[in-house]
Every structure is written in structure tokens, then in C-alpha cells.
Amino acid sequence: MEQQYDIVVAGAGIAGCLSAAGAAREGASVLLLDRNDNAQVGKKTNWGWVCGDAVAKTHVDFLEKELGLRLSEPVLDLRVDGVQVLSPDLTRKFQFEGAGYSLDRPKLAKVLVDFAIKNGAEYAPRHEVEGPLIKEDKVAGVYGRDAKGEQFSVGAKIVIDALGIASTIRRKLPKNKYIENTVSTDDIESTGRYIYKFNPAGDDARYYDPKNALIHLNQQLAPGGYGWVFPKTGNRVNIGIGVEKKSLEIRNSKLGRTDTLHMLIDKYVEWNPLVKDTELDQQDSNGKGYWSVTVRRQFDSLVFPGYMGVGDSMAMPNPISAGGIGPAMSGGAVAGKIAAGAVSSGETGIEALWKYNLRFNEIYGSKTAGLEIFRIYLQSLNNDLINYGMSKFLTEEEAVEISYGNIPKITIASTFSKVLSGVSNITAFKNLLFTVKKMKEMNELYTKYPSSPAAFDAWKAKVTESMREVKETFRPNPI
Ligand SMILES: Cc1cc2nc3c(=O)[nH]c(=O)nc-3n(C[C@H](O)[C@H](O)[C@H](O)COP(=O)(O)OP(=O)(O)OC[C@H]3O[C@@H](n4cnc5c(N)ncnc54)[C@H](O)[C@@H]3O)c2cc1C
Fold first, then answer.
1. Which of 46-55, 133-142, 378-387, 395-404 has the lowest mean pLDDT?
2. Which terminus in the chain has less CB density within 10 A, N or C?
């Protein structure tokens, strides 16, 4: 007989630690497993705690409200006013989001695992999770290898999968209509970044701004994604790019190049006239790293009998910004509590867990399908069209509305005064109108997210069809 817990949480990253804390403080017996040793908790890959480190203040506040955890310095390394998105020619700059923070991710990870333990979770580091135990078509625990390399298995009424993008549990779930085993490569950004110490070689807020997180849209430098320059304390900066595979291939073939992600990151750093005389900040051996992040809506369901998923394992990052810290925090803050409630009611089947789908939708998830549509549209625009669009047919206010998942009233009439010219520009504008229409449709579908699994098939068919239409209309077209 394997050891039994109410809840096993797999993965002690942001989503996992918070789920474990939330479940344990409601009185459930919780085991939190992670492959890392204690000193390296929350490390995502061999490369380190690979991330841009930026999170909006709203998520940090939500965490305090839901679980009573107040983050402070030095975890909140630097407070910034917001995120600024620049056009490829750097002439336009849109201010997004409210205040936010640059985090110290290794320090955050320690605070979060301590919080889980303090709330009563049992923490087992150096446990590699290899897959789910399935009994009678239900997830009933996990198996893997312990610190000595020996096989272990542990039983649970509910398994919370917080293993990140490459989750070995999700990939080995029995084929089912609720949760896909894999994510399409079209919906993944390959990313990488450096953390540098440097002395800004001048003063130009288009390239580096100690008060704002900068995002550079540029289909040549970062095809299908973007570059970022996020300030940190003490003249340090987190600088990196994300690219989409197809966009990179098209860009390389059109330009006759063979650039890889690694080469493009170095080119992006070189392109920046202010980030010079750099020295890698190797604190926690976390100065340089590469990993992937999803840019689609979260999975259509986050639950399966005996199973809940949270964070990157469920594709929760924002489809436009790839920001996944916030949804991992907010998702974790609610997932554990709901799991503990299900255990104490004695019901852990899909009906009982469904309320997590509804709750996540309510706090974050309802806007992401719309944002996925906008991301697909954006990837179909080359630099000239993005420059034109940001100066002529999308105002800063409209762009900000879209980033919040709201639908601005963009109509031919409202833009009449803007006097559009050029066939491809006018086509791009018409495509924007189509995009906004589809986003609206998708948002409406998400306000009608099925209240129980019985209505899931019909709802999912509509979402899938709408997304198929968008993907057929827009193809990556970086150059
Ligand atoms: C380069 C880059 C830049 C990013 N920048 C930002 C940003 O600026 N802002 C933002 O909001 N988001 C950003 N993101 C996304 C963000 O980092 C993630 O969304 C976030 O870390 C998700 O947290 P998580 O807890 O779901 O998963 P993870 O952080 O991936 O944690 C998963 C945990 O599970 C463990 N684990 C994995 N597999 C196993 C296994 N088989 N057995 C046992 N343990 C296992 C891992 O060791 C880890 O501890 C970025 C991502 C990348 C790659």
C-alpha cells in the first residue's frame, strides 16, 4: 500500500507552493513534491529560475487577500510604474498595466515554500514525479523516483499538477476531452534572458527606463514575440526575448539567415545602446537561462476526475504578454482551497472539482481566449504594419482596453478621421476589426462558461470552431 494523503501537490514553484498552502490551511493533509533540493526550490530548469521576473501589483494584492500572504522586499526587488510597449521604429509608446514589481525569484521561491510548510504541508524535495497513478479512470496519486533514485508512489484523493509547462502528469493523463496532453508549438514562445549588472550608457527611456518595464515589438529582432528590458535594483536589468518557431523560420528564410534564439538574444542586447559594459549577475547561478512559455488561453478545463492543474502546467500565462507569475499566484491561491473543500465534502470527481474552472474563469481566465486571438493577429503583422497601426489605427486607450480583455469600440466610423492609406495598411485595419469582433464573440462565450461538465462538449465545440477560423485567417508573417 502506498502512503495516502488528501492532496498531493506536484511541483513546488509559485503555483504549487500556494496551492499546498491554501489546501493545508483548510485542514487537508498535503504532500508537496519537487525534484529540486531544498536550496534550489522553485528552480524551473537546470538553467535556473528563468523568468523576466515582472508581475503586476494586482496579483500580489490578490494573494494577500486570498491567503493572507504579504510579499515585501527583498522578494519585491523593485517597484515599477507599469509596462510600456514600444513600436518597432520606437516612435510610439503605449503605457500598460498599473504598478508592478520586479521579483527576486529565488527569494520568492523560499518564502513560498516556507509559507506552505508553515500552513501544514509536508514538503518532499528531490522527488522526480514521472506520472499519475490512475485507478478506475480517476487520478489517484503520482509515481516517480525519490532522492535515492528508487521508485516511489503516493496515493491522493486529489492531485494538483503544478509541474510547469512540461508537466509529466498532464502528458500522461488518459486521453480525454477535458485536458489536452500537449500544447501546439504554434502556441509556445521559446524564450531566454540575461540578468546583467551594468552602468546605463546614457539616458534614453526607449531603451532602458528604471521606472518602467519596457517591451519592444520588433518582428526582425524577436519574430512572433517581443524583446524586454525590465529594470531591477542596483543598476541591474533583466533583458531577453521570446520568439515563435514558425515566425522565426519565415523570418530567417526571407532574410536568408540562420539565426537561433540564442543568437537573437545576443543581437537584441547588442542593439540596445544603453545596456553596455555588462557583467552577468550570477547570484544563485541565475544570470542566464532559456525556457519556454505558452501563449494560448488556459486549457478549456483545468480539472479531470481526481485532478486539478494550475500555473504553467495548464497554459495559464497571458497570451499577449506571456506573464504567468500572476495567474500562477492567483490560480494557486484559489486551487488549494477548492481542493480541500472537495476532500472534506467527500466528492473528488469532476462534478465536485468543476467549481475551480468557474472560479479561475471569474478571477482571470475569462479574458484569455480573446487575448489569444489578438496575439494571433499581432503575429500576422510585420514591423511596418505594427508601426502604422500603433500610430494610425489603434489608440493607446484602445490597446489598454484590449490588454485587459475588454473590447474597445473600434469601427470604420470611429477611425474615419484617421485617414488610412496604403492597401496593406487598410487590410490590416480591416483585419483588426475582424479580430475585435472575434474577441467579443469569445468573451461572450466565456461569460457562458458551462456551469457543469454536462454542457462542456457543446461549449468547447464553439470555442474550437471560433479559434480555428481565426487561425485560418491569420498566419505568421513577420517580414
Ligand atoms: C524566459 C521567461 C521569461 C518570463 N517572464 C515572465 C515575466 O516577466 N512575468 C511573468 O509573469 N511571467 C513570466 N514568465 C512565465 C513565468 O515564469 C511562469 O509562468 C511561472 O514561473 C509559472 O509558475 P509555475 O509554478 O506554474 O511553474 P514553474 O515555475 O515552472 O514551477 C514548476 C516546479 O515544478 C518542478 N518540476 C517540474 N517537473 C518536475 C517533475 N517531473 N518532478 C518534480 N518536480 C518537477 C520544477 O522544478 C519547479 O519547481 C516567463 C517565462 C520565461 C521562460
1. 395-404
2. N
What's the 18 CA to ligand 1 centre distance in angstroms? 13
Closest Cα to atom 17 of ligand 1: 51
The protein residue with its alpha carbon nearest to ligand 1, atom 46, reads 44
**Does the Cβ of 13 fall within 6 Å of ligand 1?**
yes
Same domain, 157 and 9: yes
Convert the pLDDT of each residue in 216-275 to its tens digit: 999 999 999 999 999 999 999 999 999 999 999 999 999 999 999 999 999 999 999 999
Give the model confidence (pLDDT) of 286-295 as tens digits. Answer: 999 999 999 9
Q: How far is the CA of 173 from the centre of ligand 1 (A)?
A: 20
Cell numbers that stand for 128 in this block: 522526480
Evaluate: CB of 100 within 6 angstroms of ligand 1. Answer: no
Distance 312 CA to ligand 1 centre (A): 6
Number of the ligand 1 atom closest to the C-alpha atom of 165: 30
* CATH number of residue 190's parent domain: 3.30.9.10
CATH of the domain at 351: 3.50.50.60
What is the bridge-based pairing of β-strands 3-10 and 93-96? unpaired
pLDDT at residue 153 greater than cutoff 90: yes
Number of domains composing the chain: 3
Q: Whose CA is nearest to atom 31 of ligand 1?
A: 13
Cis amide leading into 74 (omega within 30): yes
DSSP structure string for 176-196:
-SSS-SS--GGGEEEEEEEEE
Atom of ligand 1 nearest to the CA of 324: 19
Gap between the Cα atoms of 474 and 5, Å rounded: 47
